[in-house]
Amino acid sequence: MDIISPHQDNEFGLVEHTPIASLYFGGMHRFEFSPIEDVQHPSIGKVGINLINGSYLVMHYPSNIFWKHVSPKQPGIFEPRINITFRLN
Asked: What is the pTM of this model?
């Protein structure tokens, strides 16, 4: 299973102020958000959601500015999954 480290979607050409949407198919997996910390805004901690087959997740602006996201490695979970992400370029 491929794992992508915590990140923000900041590809060249993304249209500012637009949502990023994802469709999930296959086995259940965890999706987590971690705040991007700075001196004026201390961390409020990690939050997450378990996504199941057919889940639809929308990250509205400005969530991608203030939060990183990841689908962490989950030992013992072997079901295949597919994520289709939509971004406006």
From this structure: 0.79
